[in-house]
């Protein structure tokens, strides 16, 4: 029997999680919530999702706009086996305290929430077992997810001594006409190391003190990019390429093939026919993979809107104890989405 | 008596070099050249520079457009003590072989030319003495100049074991409406390490094998940015801040002061009343300066259009043996431009 999943917050992440859950044969979407009756709310209804007001006081707003809702979140939450919270960063923690714990329903928060508010931090490759059967878990951010996957590949063939990463972050998502920068590079945070290293450690405690990151924001909407420099105890370029090949949800792209920027990588995802051109996997530039003095160099991109989506699916399976082998869950999720 | 300087190519770099030379009491601009009679050519004449056609065959073009020229480069080159070549990258090498060597005139090429075509590579802090009295020298690129200055500061208080740098490069200059990217991050080169490390080594041979760089291009026009991670034999944050304070042409800026991006840094240069808002110095974010396990972290920006300008002035002094103390030349140049 399919487990019942409620998506609280049908925005950039929520709508993607809903569509991914709907594709699983062991899960069903029992509802999605919205705070306001905008185009996303209308499309949710058109798609056949049961829509609920995320904030009871705003129920009237939906009725005024003629957007059909089934009630409020409190009319559906007791039916849910798990809630995937996709509220904006910082709100998830409030929802956890005020709603999920009160209603004793398992909940997944997203990477915008801090590690300390939940029992553990999830990545399907690294912490599936630790999150197995747990009640309140956080799927780490898009950037941390991308780093965790690549470190998994490298860690599978050598030991990481110290990794240095510079994150070149997109300024805003494609649908966001409010944020910038339009013409500037912004050190963000201006302090170094940034919080991204510790966030990886929340998933992989053995990397404590070994991941040093800095980050800037640049005027682009399509993807983040990472430049990684990973000191190891010893490896070769071929071993790393082989490890990437064997690691789920990472793959190599070649600049020589025309995949020479985040723009052409997104064009590739569009040509693949991906829904919303989502690229759930982390593309790593083949040309950039190099080993000098046991140090692995590589550059990768991260589709900020979608790489965490399959992780949310696997996290549901772990928390509801639906599958005890993480690689089997990953394979099942990948197959459902069309990830090779 | 003032030395006679000819500027071959009155474009982004050339017009700035001309204005800087004009400010020196020991140098004079005997002419500037242009390949076409555009607005820059017209402004050069209005400013009082003697204009020459860089390509003799195009002399008629200037006459057609009513832009007054004094002749072609070959009418003035024999009067020059030195030529500062500011032609587009790759052309300088041809000019060196076809013109400067033939006319036996000393010449400075810019960073777009390769190190192997000249006798040595110039940075006022590192290689002034080596370039003293030489005939054909290259002032290294804006990015390499920025790195050389910061490494000088760090090297003045500790030994650099290995430095890793990620360069986040501006996509185009502000006046360039042809180039991009508009919405993408481009690994450029897609191979790692990039050529920027070896370019630093062309100035500082003792860093051979110690500078590992990667580079991306992003959609911005104002400045480049660098994230530096420099392993040392041991130092402190205070020592590094002190070294930055004492090193010419680098200074700290504070994000807390509002100088939190390349955009606000350029606004600062505009408010300072700098010509063309040029920022000849390298701003380093104070908040980013950190030392963890003897590794220095910092982030800096580079005004690609102008940081090499004072270097060209010092390079003239070195090549024409006008001043044998590099620090005195630097001080003289700085004073003339208004650099503190």
Automatic annotation (TrEMBL), chains A, B:
Q: Quick one: which residues bind D-glyceraldehyde 3-phosphate? A: 141-143, 196-197
SMART domains according to UniProt: Gp_dh_N (SM00846)
Pfam families found in the cross-reference section: DapB_N, Gp_dh_C
Q: How does it assemble?
A: Homotetramer.
GO molecular function annotation:
4-hydroxy-tetrahydrodipicolinate reductase; glyceraldehyde-3-phosphate dehydrogenase (NAD+) (phosphorylating) activity; glyceraldehyde-3-phosphate dehydrogenase (NADP+) (phosphorylating) activity; NAD binding; NADP binding
Q: What is the lineage of its organism?
A: Archaea, Methanobacteriati, Methanobacteriota, Methanomada group, Methanococci
What name is this protein filed under? Answer: Glyceraldehyde-3-phosphate dehydrogenase
User: What region holds the Glyceraldehyde 3-phosphate dehydrogenase NAD(P) binding domain?
Assistant: 3-142
Q: What is its EC number?
A: 1.2.1.59
- What cellular-component terms does GO give this entry? cytoplasm
Enzymatic class: oxidoreductase
- List the catalytic activities from the record: D-glyceraldehyde 3-phosphate + phosphate + NADP(+) = (2R)-3-phospho-glyceroyl phosphate + NADPH + H(+); D-glyceraldehyde 3-phosphate + phosphate + NAD(+) = (2R)-3-phospho-glyceroyl phosphate + NADH + H(+)
